[in-house]
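Tokens in:
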């Protein structure tokens, strides 16, 4: 969350959600927003159900981003 406020975090979440709905998502855009929301997402995961987390961060359904989340 360094350098990110609530407004920018919500913008990144919206970007992730929008890109994941595309037929051919831009993984670089998703990756950037996932990195920027990493600290927020970690806290969010502890406070919400699995379904809520997957609805909010649909990229976590993608194998590529699950692996990145484990590394971060």
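Residues out:
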């Amino acid at each position: 969350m360094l350098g990110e406020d609530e407004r920018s975090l919500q913008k990144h979440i919206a970007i992730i959600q929008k890109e994941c709905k595309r037929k051919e998502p831009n993984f670089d855009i998703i990756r950037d927003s996932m990195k920027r929301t990493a600290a927020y997402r970690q806290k969010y995961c502890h406070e919400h159900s699995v379904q809520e987390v997957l609805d909010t961060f649909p990229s976590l359904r993608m194998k590529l981003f699950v692996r990145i989340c484990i590394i971060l």
